[in-house]
Amino acid sequence: MSQSYNRGLIEDYGRWKEFSAGMWAWIFHKFTGWMLIGYLFTHIAVLSTAIGAAQGETVEVFAEDLPNVEGTGLTEVDIYTATLGGLEGLFIVRLLEVGLLAVAVFHILNGLRLLMVDLGIGLEAQDKSFYASLILTGVITVASVPTFLRGVGF
Amino acid sequence: MSTQQQEPETQEPETQEAPEDPEMKGAESPQQRRLKKKQEGMVDERSEAEAEAEGETVHIKVFRYDPEVEGKQEPRFDDFYVPFEKGMTVLDAVMYARDEYDSSLTFRHSCRQAVCGSDAFFVNGSQQLGCKTQISDLEQPVRIEPLPHQEVVKDLVVDMDHFYDQMHAVEPYFKQEDLPEGELEEQRQSRENREKVKMSTRCIWCAACMSSCNIAAGDNQYLGPAAINKAYRFAMDEREDEEIKEHRLRILEQEHGVWRCQTQFSCTEVCPKDIPLTEHIQELKREAVKKNLKFW
C-alpha cells in the first residue's frame, strides 16, 4: 500500500524474527521451489552438451581426472561419460548434490503438508508438521552425505 | 443523624458563592482556581503512585508521526516510563502516557474489553489488540507501532478505509428474501449450523489479520482474511438460499478472492478472537472447487 513516508523494513522481511511457523514454511517453500526450477534449467543446459553421445561422439581425456573412467593416461571416452565424470570429480558438485537433495526433500515434505492444509486435515497441527518436515529433511540430508561424498571425503 | 446532615450544609455555600462573585474574576477566575486545584491534586497523586511503585515502571516506545505539524513529520519513537499496575494492558499504558505525559499522543480506543476492535496495534513486532495484551507478558521496552501495511494518519491511527471497503465487498449481511410463513415465525438455524459458523461470527473488524497478511500487503485487490471470514459466516449459513450462496461464492472465487491465500497462517496467528481464519479460507476454496468441478 502506498505510504506517505518510509517505515523501513517493519513492513515486510525486516520483522523476520517474529515470523511464525507458517510464514517460514511459506518462505522456504518459495525459496526451494525457485532453487528446483533453477536446477532444472541448469540440468538441461549441462546435459545438452552431451547430446552427441548418442551419435558416438567422443573426446580424449586423462583417465586419472575422471572417477568413472578406468585406465591411465589419455583415453578416448564418449562425451556423456566425460561430462558426468568431469562433474562428479569436483568436490563442489558433490556438495551441491547434498544441497539439492535437501531442497527437494523439504519441498516434497512441505508440499505434502500443504496438500493436507488444502484438504483441511489437521490445520491446528500445521506448525508441528512444518517442524516435522524440517527435522525429517535434516535427517535424510545427513544420512545421504556418505553416499554423495563417496570418493571425495568419505 | 442531625450532626451528619449539618456538615454538608456548612461546606456548600463556599463553593457555590465563588463563581457568582464578579470581583473575583479580575484576580483569579473560578476556572483557573479549579485547574490549579486539580493540578495540585494530580501532582500529589502522581508522587504517591511513584512512591508506591518504586522502580516498577514499564518502558514503552511509541511510534509518533503527525503530517500536519512541521516538526513531527519525520516519524520517531517517543519513550514513556509508565508506572506498572497489576493487570496493566498495552492500552492502559498508552492511555496513561497520553493522560499524564503527552496529550497529543493519538490512538483509537473505545470499549477496552476486546469488543469494539479499535485498538489493534503492532506491539513488539506482531499485531495485537492493545486492550487484550498484558504488558507483563511482553519484553521491555515495549514497542508500540501503528498497524503495518496501512497508511498512518497520525501516531497509532491508521487509515481503515481500504479494510472497510474489502469488508463491504463481500456483502456482509444476511440476504434471505423468502420469509417463513406466519407473522411471528422465526428463521431458525440448526444447532450444528450455528456451531459451524460460531467462530467466524466473532470478528470485531480490528484489521489485525489484514495487516499481518503478506499477500494482502502486496495485492490491494485481495479481499483479505477478515472479509473472506465474513463471507464464510454467511456462505455457510444454511438459512440462506442456494442461489445466494452461489452468488457469494462467485465473489470469492475471483482471481483476488480466496485463491490469493497462500496459507501462511499469519492471520490465524494474530487474530485476537482466535478465529481459525486460514481454515475458513481453505474451506471456501474447497467449496469453490466443488461448485465448478462436476464429474457427473
TrEMBL record, chain A:
<feature type="transmembrane region" description="Helical">
    <location>
        <begin position="91"/>
        <end position="109"/>
    </location>
</feature>
<dbReference type="Pfam" id="PF01127">
    <property type="entry name" value="Sdh_cyt"/>
</dbReference>
<dbReference type="InterPro" id="IPR000701">
    <property type="entry name" value="SuccDH_FuR_B_TM-su"/>
</dbReference>
<dbReference type="InterPro" id="IPR034804">
    <property type="entry name" value="SQR/QFR_C/D"/>
</dbReference>
<dbReference type="InterPro" id="IPR039023">
    <property type="entry name" value="SdhC_prok"/>
</dbReference>
<dbReference type="GO" id="GO:0006099">
    <property type="term" value="P:tricarboxylic acid cycle"/>
</dbReference>
<keyword id="KW-0479">Metal-binding</keyword>
<dbReference type="GO" id="GO:0016020">
    <property type="term" value="C:membrane"/>
</dbReference>
<keyword id="KW-0472">Membrane</keyword>
<dbReference type="GO" id="GO:0009055">
    <property type="term" value="F:electron transfer activity"/>
</dbReference>
<keyword id="KW-1133">Transmembrane helix</keyword>
<protein>
    <submittedName>
        <fullName>Succinate dehydrogenase, cytochrome b556 subunit</fullName>
    </submittedName>
</protein>
<keyword id="KW-0349">Heme</keyword>
<dbReference type="GO" id="GO:0046872">
    <property type="term" value="F:metal ion binding"/>
</dbReference>
<dbReference type="InterPro" id="IPR014314">
    <property type="entry name" value="Succ_DH_cytb556"/>
</dbReference>
<keyword id="KW-0408">Iron</keyword>
<feature type="transmembrane region" description="Helical">
    <location>
        <begin position="130"/>
        <end position="149"/>
    </location>
</feature>
<keyword id="KW-0812">Transmembrane</keyword>
Automatic annotation (TrEMBL), chain B:
<dbReference type="InterPro" id="IPR004489">
    <property type="entry name" value="Succ_DH/fum_Rdtase_Fe-S"/>
</dbReference>
<dbReference type="InterPro" id="IPR012675">
    <property type="entry name" value="Beta-grasp_dom_sf"/>
</dbReference>
<keyword id="KW-0479">Metal-binding</keyword>
<feature type="region of interest" description="Disordered">
    <location>
        <begin position="1"/>
        <end position="55"/>
    </location>
</feature>
<feature type="compositionally biased region" description="Acidic residues">
    <location>
        <begin position="9"/>
        <end position="21"/>
    </location>
</feature>
<feature type="domain" description="Succinate dehydogenase/fumarate reductase N-terminal">
    <location>
        <begin position="59"/>
        <end position="164"/>
    </location>
</feature>
<dbReference type="InterPro" id="IPR036010">
    <property type="entry name" value="2Fe-2S_ferredoxin-like_sf"/>
</dbReference>
<dbReference type="Pfam" id="PF13183">
    <property type="entry name" value="Fer4_8"/>
</dbReference>
<keyword id="KW-0560">Oxidoreductase</keyword>
<keyword id="KW-0411">Iron-sulfur</keyword>
<comment type="similarity">
    <text>Belongs to the succinate dehydrogenase/fumarate reductase iron-sulfur protein family.</text>
</comment>
<dbReference type="InterPro" id="IPR009051">
    <property type="entry name" value="Helical_ferredxn"/>
</dbReference>
<dbReference type="Pfam" id="PF13085">
    <property type="entry name" value="Fer2_3"/>
</dbReference>
<dbReference type="InterPro" id="IPR050573">
    <property type="entry name" value="SDH/FRD_Iron-Sulfur"/>
</dbReference>
<keyword id="KW-0001">2Fe-2S</keyword>
<keyword id="KW-0408">Iron</keyword>
<dbReference type="GO" id="GO:0009055">
    <property type="term" value="F:electron transfer activity"/>
</dbReference>
<dbReference type="GO" id="GO:0051537">
    <property type="term" value="F:2 iron, 2 sulfur cluster binding"/>
</dbReference>
<keyword id="KW-0004">4Fe-4S</keyword>
<dbReference type="GO" id="GO:0051539">
    <property type="term" value="F:4 iron, 4 sulfur cluster binding"/>
</dbReference>
<dbReference type="GO" id="GO:0016491">
    <property type="term" value="F:oxidoreductase activity"/>
</dbReference>
<dbReference type="InterPro" id="IPR025192">
    <property type="entry name" value="Succ_DH/fum_Rdtase_N"/>
</dbReference>
